[in-house]
Design the sequence.
């Protein structure tokens, strides 16, 4: 774990902001006709910071799910295979869910985690591809990604303020 007072205090704000900025940067680049590698590096950085700060039952499943999520999103930037994207992202999010809570449903915190992962699944498999085909600005998908990742980060990371 990285010992940093800023990351200990502000990681629930930094991680969703950087994640949403990276997705917005990548999708904007696709609208303009090129894929920006800087956006992928920023996205990978936010994923690594999240992994460093997360409190999980099985941290190895969280890491493998995060890596699979990153790889599947990078693959989907190049192809239009919707079912492959849905299968990879849903597998990644299931691995993250198992790593975080071990499939326990009865806690309110766990239900928030499942809700946020469902919102992320819908955003990345339905909303973003639809808005990408319409060649319009990303509006509702970016808002739902911001909501989903914020709920996920706030429920899975402990800071001195959020104990």
Sequence:
């Amino acid at each position: 774990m990285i010992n940093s007072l800023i990351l200990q205090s502000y990681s629930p704000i930094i991680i969703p902001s950087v994640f949403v900025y990276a997705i917005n940067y990548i999708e904007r680049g696709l609208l303009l006709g090129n894929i920006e590698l800087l956006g992928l590096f920023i996205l990978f950085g936010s994923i690594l910071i999240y992994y460093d700060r997360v409190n999980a039952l099985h941290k190895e499943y969280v890491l493998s799910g995060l890596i699979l999520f990153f790889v599947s999103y990078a693959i989907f930037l190049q192809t239009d295979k919707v079912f492959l994207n849905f299968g990879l992202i849903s597998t990644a999010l299931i691995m993250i869910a198992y790593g975080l809570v071990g499939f326990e449903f009865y806690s309110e915190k766990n239900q928030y985690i499942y809700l946020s992962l469902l919102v992320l699944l819908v955003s990345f498999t339905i909303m973003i591809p639809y808005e990408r085909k319409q060649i319009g600005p990303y509006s509702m998908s970016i808002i739902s990604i911001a909501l989903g990742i914020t709920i996920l980060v706030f429920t899975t990371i402990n800071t001195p303020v959020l104990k």
In short: The two ends are 17 Å apart (CA to CA). Helices lie at 5-32, 37-53, 59-78, 82-101, 108-134, 140-156. The first helix runs from residue 5 to 32.
